[in-house]
Amino acid sequence: MSFFSRYLPFVAAMALVVVASNILVQFPLQGAIGGLSLADILTWGAFTYPFSFLVTDLANRRYGPAVARRIVFVGFTAAVICSVVIPPLLFRYGLIEFETAADRLVRIAAASGTAFLIAQLLDVTVFNWLRRQSWWR
Fold this sequence. Notes:
3% strand, 6 helices, 2 strands, mainly alpha, two-stranded antiparallel ribbon, globular
């Protein structure tokens, strides 16, 4: 049985969250609080991305940190692919107003992928450490 088929619910959930977040990050949240425009600081992706940590923590709880890390790498791969593929597609179909230049697109993909990888792997480590503490049980 392969890794993907054995852990399909977690792999699929991580891929779904990453793809949804990469699409929704292209769309700013409209509105204002006081004089602050939310479109300048917040996108719809901010509401879906935290679910990736839930997927990682549930996988960690059920199967342990080794499997959780592998699921993180699946999410990382999906994030990098989405960061390169999705913006041009959304531009082509008129869903966003500008296409990110190719050189910037690679930097954005590398930066967002690295941030995702560091945050998720740190989450796996901290969650696993907390799980082993007697006060946590």
